Amino acid sequence: MHPEATTGAGPAAQRAGTDAEHRxxxxxxxxxxxxxxxxxxxxxxxxxAMHALRGIDLTIGAGEMVAxxxxxGSGKSTxxxxxxxxxxxxxxxxxxxxLDVDAMSRDQRALLRRHALGFxxxxxxxxxxxxxxxxxxxxxIYHRLPAAERRGRARAALAAVGLTGWExxxxxxxxxxxxxxxxxxxxxxxxxxxxxxxxxTGNLDSARSREIMDLLRAMNREHGITVVMITHEPDMxxxxxxxxxFLDGLVACEAAPVADSAAAxxxxxxxxxxxxxxxx
Length: 280
Ligand SMILES: Nc1ncnc2c1ncn2[C@@H]1O[C@H](COP(=O)(O)OP(=O)(O)OP(=O)(O)O)[C@@H](O)[C@H]1O
Ligand SMILES: [Mg+2]
What we know:
By secondary structure, the protein is an alpha/beta fold. The chain has one domain (3-8, 21-29, 62-85, 106-265): Rossmann fold. It has ten helices and ten strands. The strands form two sheets. The chain has a six-stranded mixed sheet with strand order 6-7-8-3-9-10, sandwiched between helices. Strands 2-1-4-5 form a four-stranded antiparallel sheet, with helices on one face. The structure holds adenosine-5'-triphosphate and magnesium ion (MG). Magnesium ion is lined by residues 76-77, 198.
């Protein structure tokens, strides 16, 4: 696979969108890519208050591949939604490349989502009566590209996930693994800095799961895309360079992946950069 040729990866200057938009989400040099400090999230109020996050500290460096694990209800998706600017913390701070996300306007957050973040949701989230190609094109609608370029990039992203020839199929005509590939192509088509994946293999058998993880790891290693993924499966977490364990709305501990069969399958190398400083 040639990611450069397939998803249009390249210098930031080549990215879709206007220069002004890029400046709006430009980096503060030397800052970690992602930094959560004391992040809490409370749903509801009074006696019905649900403390989904109780004070998360997490630093993720550019180029890392991080797995988030933990029991159901421990706050993993809540934290992911905050990282993805789909939700805001009740307290604490979120910095992206040193920029204070909480201080951004809605529009600035939208720009950050549009230019820097890609999402793979559990359950794929594809539009049903829409072809694979159109599903992948969707995030580019906001990038003000000519239609032909949009289409070309969407085709290339589908090729990158091994779906050449399937462009005109709707999700119902695709297997679960193929649908998840479409979802990954959609996450990659904008050439994001970070892909956030919430249980990307949750609905797949183990062979399809390994294919998806191989794909995410290739994007991480070959494109330098930072990957943060939630998983319940140790075999899938073993693909990451670092595992963050959530418990009761807190980061309980961090660990390097266990060198089991999946890690061996992964080449068992420690190619990820040094972990961030999420530990206290
Ligand atoms: N929109 C919401 N309103 C109220 N409570 C919520 C909301 N979203 C999440 N919660 C609660 O916050 C807690 C954390 O939820 P979250 O979805 O982050 O868990 P999770 O770790 O992703 O679990 P799972 O592994 O089951 O996906 C849960 O108790 C959940 O019920
Ligand atoms: Mg969840």
